[in-house]
Design goal:
Layout (H helix, E strand, L loop, with lengths): L1 H23 L5 H15 L4 E12 L4 E12 L2 E12 L7 E6 L2
Antiparallel strand pairs: 1-2, 2-3, 3-4
Length: about 100
């Protein structure tokens, strides 16, 4: 019985660690860029309330260059304004940021 249980437990541990690694892979660093996007929105809309925040996703632009998109719902003078912040960066290094802020009309 022990001969069967040890390999099964080992396989479960390996698959468990692999699945958590793959689950984290797409947005390992998106939280860092989400913080940057939040600072940009709060600076662009001083005194206005950010009601909702959503990570839209990551788009590959080139071999090492990606763009993370974030959507914010901001209350501007009592009206909801949808603001999208797109941050493109080198996926390996994370430096050289390009930040685009778009308002949905």
């Amino acid at each position: 019985m022990k001969r069967i249980l040890i390999p099964i437990i080992t396989l479960l541990c390996i698959f468990g660690s692999l699945s958590s690694t793959y689950a984290e892979q797409p947005g390992l660093d998106y939280k860092k860029f989400g913080k940057i996007a939040t600072v940009v929105v709060t600076e662009d809309y001083p005194g206005q309330q950010v009601v909702e925040y959503k990570y839209v996703g990551r788009e590959t632009l080139a071999e090492n260059k990606v763009m993370d998109s974030f959507q914010f719902e901001v209350m501007v003078n009592g009206k909801k304004q949808i603001v999208t912040v797109k941050i493109s960066h080198d996926n390996k290094v994370g430096k050289e940021l390009t930040i685009i802020v778009e308002e949905k009309k």
